[in-house]
Amino acid sequence: MPVRVQTEDFDVGTEIARLRRGDPKIGAVASFVGVVRNVNDGDSIATLTLEHYPGMTEKAIEAIVAEAKSRWDIVDVGVIHRVGELKPLDQIVLVVVVGGHRGDAFAACEFIMDYLKTRAPFWKKEETPEGARWVDARASDDDAAERWAGRKKDVA
Amino acid sequence: MSANLKLRFFAKLREDLGTPAEDLILPVGVTTVGDLRAHLTARGGAWATALAPGRALGIAVNQEKAQPSTSIKADDEIAFFPPVTGG
User: Which residue of A51, A59, A113 is in closest CB contact with B87?
Assistant: First the structure.
């Protein structure tokens, strides 16, 4: 991958195969796919439009990936984030981590998502029966990212 | 020496201010991100509301996350935006 921001959809299997590259040292593949829901805060969602800050977005995600690689024993990471207009059921984001063992792969994947949600410059606007509205940041997302701050690095 | 700053605004802030970007000559006395925010707020109207001191805003200088104390200089790109909601 390794970091892509795009309007097009992605195929998880293709991206995983690309990241594994047939490397027999890779024993674990952890992935996360974020998908558009049809309800948010009690209202039905017709469309979700994602805006971003081209240039900063890629740098911010690359910095998060670099930090994950310094914290955990993993081989490689791929991130795809879609922008533009999406609909319920559409895939929004993909994080794939490949490594030797599952523990580090799972942790790194979750860390990358938690940091991406609070540090990468994306904004969501949703179309509801009440009209369009910008999605508010959630305190729970800040809490999720914050819990990694105090953790000891697994890799010196 | 006068200097050009490139200001950028995103998402709800872009809509509230009615513009995605602006070129600005570095105002006298403005040396930090916090100074710049105060300078823009002093324009009144939508600027005073959207950039009001109590509002949670993200700020980036040259596409790196910045703090109110971050200094700014000639030819910097300075972005203001609401808290991020990706993922």
Answer: A113
